[in-house]
Design a protein that fits this description.
Strand order of the largest sheet: 3-2-4-5-6
Number of strands: 9
Radius of gyration: 26 Å
CATH class of the largest domain: Alpha Beta
Number of domains: 3
Strand content: 5-15%
Shape: flat
CATH architecture of the largest domain: 3-Layer(aba) Sandwich
Length: about 400
């Protein structure tokens, strides 16, 4: 990792406040400082301005947005078919994962199922069904157009039967919404939030026109460096299709977002990486910290006091549960999806560990840690820190100190 930049006290305080109140400490200060290495020191204030205006959405927030729209649909319909846009394991599938989590809050008996349109038989769709196509971010709309065109036969047959088709997404660019409505007038488009270009003359978040132009030049300059040889016809220095988005989601960053946010030069690290190799590197750093913590906790169990009896809660084969506990308490992450990614667990493995923690009283069904477990956790941390200080003091005492026989001619 490159050397961290020496930011000013004012810049450090601003970064700390942004992380705390806007990102809920979802990323570390070290990550932000490493990202600043991409830019010249004189440009750090501009970079921090961009960082301040990123629109960050946790999975819980995305659930709230989707749930609000689905509840509106269920007021008049109780038979829903959810279909992801795009190929398997893409953003549409993540949205299905979120929708499955929120189904209990729909308030009444709703018949629903998940499927892929290419696997669906038009005759299996009933007249009272509502087809809901789902995605997270619709930027240029090309993915939507490609999806509709490749499935035009069954879509036309469904529409001919007066069955409603809704495209539900978390975000859609304003210019794309208008164009898709004109092109597909029989499909209902329901974006949870409409987004505008970051450097729109009328809707920019960057204040005055002169300030907006300054930030735009900065983003364009580094956008050109970042996309480099990866550049395609539609990949522009200000995002795919020149969408100029500021949206970052907990599980992913769209390529429609400013490349300066998700990419990096040779000198620094990405802030919210899109590419697999960068994510692996950052995950490796996180895992190494987790392994250190787990080893320290395991060592502490063998020497724990009788009044802090962790063995009552954990067995030697379930130290991964401790990592989940650390993430829930110390890292303040409640998202199952992020825990899966951070620890490299499969969904089945996580469910087994979650049930183990439920049985032991480590957390409840919503992954909320009770006060008695929190207290024990912090007591163990105190013991570890105290022991570390004792080790440091011991090392100092054991070191040989050289005392000269004479100093400035005096003995």
């Amino acid at each position: 990792m490159a050397q961290l930049p020496s930011v000013s006290i004012e810049q450090a305080k601003k970064i700390e406040l942004i992380l705390k109140y806007k990102f809920n400490d979802a990323i570390s200060q070290i990550r932000v400082h490493s990202w600043l290495n991409n830019f010249k020191k004189a440009e750090w204030d501009l970079a921090i301005t961009v960082f301040e205006h990123i629109e960050y959405y946790t999975l819980d927030k995305l659930c709230d947005l989707l749930n609000s729209e689905i509840c509106e649909i269920t007021k008049t319909n109780n038979s829903l078919i959810f279909i992801p846009i795009g190929s398997q394991a893409k953003s549409g599938d993540v949205m299905l994962y979120l929708i499955q989590k929120m189904k209990q809050s729909w308030g009444k008996a709703i018949n629903y199922r998940f499927c892929r349109l290419c696997d669906e038989d038009e005759n299996s769709i009933q007249d009272d069904d509502v087809i809901i196509l789902v995605d997270d971010f619709v930027g240029t709309g090309k993915t939507v157009e490609s999806f509709v065109e490749s499935n035009i036969g069954i879509i036309d047959a469904i529409l001919a039967r007066k069955i409603q088709i809704i495209l539900l997404c978390c975000f859609m660019m304003d210019f794309t919404l208008n164009r898709l409505r004109r092109r597909f007038p029989d499909i209902t488009f329901m974006p949870c939030e409409i987004k505008y270009r970051a450097f729109d003359n009328e809707k920019s978040l960057f204040g005055s026109h002169s300030k907006m132009v300054e930030v735009r030049k900065f983003c364009y300059k580094y956008g050109q460096k970042i996309i480099g040889k990866r550049r395609r016809d539609d990949m522009k220095p200000l995002g795919f299709g020149n969408c100029q988005s500021l949206v970052v989601m907990e599980q992913s960053t769209p390529n429609d977002t400013l490349p300066l946010i998700w990419g990096s030069t040779a000198k620094g690290e990405p802030l919210f990486p899109r590419f697999y190799d960068k994510k692996v590197m950052l995950s490796r750093i996180q895992r190494s910290e987790n392994v250190w913590w787990m080893a320290k906790m395991a060592h502490s169990f063998k020497q724990t006091d009788n009044d802090i009896n962790w063995k009552e809660y954990f067995s030697n084969t379930n130290y991964v549960s401790l990592l989940i506990l650390k993430i829930l308490i110390s890292d303040r992450i409640k998202s199952e999806y992020r825990i899966l990614n951070t620890l490299g667990l499969s969904k089945t493995e996580f469910q087994q560990l979650k049930q183990y923690g439920l049985n032991k009283g480590m957390w409840d069904q919503n992954l909320v840690v009770p006060d008695n477990i929190r207290k024990m956790y912090f007591e163990i941390l105190y013991k570890l820190r105290h022991r570390k200080q004792e080790e440091m003091d011991t090392n100092i005492c054991n070191k040989k100190i050289y005392v000269p026989e004479t100093f400035k001619g005096l003995s």
